[in-house]
Model the fold of this input.
Amino acid sequence: MKTSTRLDIDHLPRISLLDGPTPIQHLWRLETRLGKALAGVRIYIKRDDHILFAGGGNKVRKLEFLMGAALADGCDTVIATGGLQSNHARLTAAAAARVGIDCELVLGRVVPREDVEYEQNGNILLDKIFGAKLHILDRGQNASDFVYERAGKLAQAGKKVAVIPMGGSSAVGALGYARCAEEILAAEIELDIQFEKILIPNGSSGTHAGLAAGLSALGRSADMVRSYSVLGEEEATTTTTLLLANGALDLLGCDRIRSCAIDICGEHRGAGYGIPTDEAMDVIGLLAKAEGILLDPVYSAKAFAGMLHDIRQGAFKPGSNVLFIHTGGTPGLYAYRSEF
Ligand SMILES: *Cc1c(COP(=O)(O)O)cnc(C)c1O
Done:
């Protein structure tokens, strides 16, 4: 296997949406609060929610490559899909605006909520401000059929359309997190610490896949990443994650990995995607009060709750360092007012 401290990635089309590496902070106030329960495990957080573009979040990294590919293909329009409160939709709208192409969003009613905040505040409000054209589907309506038809119509009208995959999770989108892996390994050297585990939420799996691919390409073990599924079952999510990781490794010209290197926990999802759990709601309050950091109820809080559970169970070596990646989603908080 070839190993190096740099990925062979610069030949792939990419636009620049990040302003350098995101900060890594040590959550010592939280550690003080939780005391002995942590068995000396030190918790660091990488602030991808702090990316200085359009409210930040993990989709920015994916969109650097997805938009780069769309522009390289000469596209003048992108279509993205997601739920009404999709962070991915919001960030695609912003990225399209920034590069000066049209954006259409196909938003499904995938979460059982009908309150006015969910329908009109948070991400969906921002989608409109970023100038996207919105298509809001009825409950049960098939998003891919709609996208296929809409893309056909736009093509007939002379547009060149790129359809962005759900959650930005394709092999190309995952490359954004392969670069993030490179960033994390550079930070280990700079901070003079080693991370035993990197913890993240898993929705459409591109984030986990990209990190796993990047780590493996750089000579580290892909199972350094553990994700907490907020959408799919453990087994199906593992299959998707592996497929995307190997797709990214193909693009990087590196050896593939096997499913035993994909570590996914499905126990903190609760009743389903977008439905907050009690432990996630508790963790939002805990981190807000201990550190002044906002998590979101759909992704980051469920994963953070999973990580704390695992630490309490002794899943990580006493005295080791773990790195939680805050994947963003705080604009979605405003859609969940009634839960608070
Ligand atoms: C999309 C999203 C995730 C999940 O990332 P995937 O690559 O889809 O697994 C996590 N956190 C936030 C805030 C997101 O918007």
Q: What stands out?
A: The pocket of pyridoxal-5'-phosphate is lined by residues 57-59, 87-88, 167, 169, 201-207, 296, 299-300, 327-329 (CB under 6 Å). The mean pLDDT is 97.
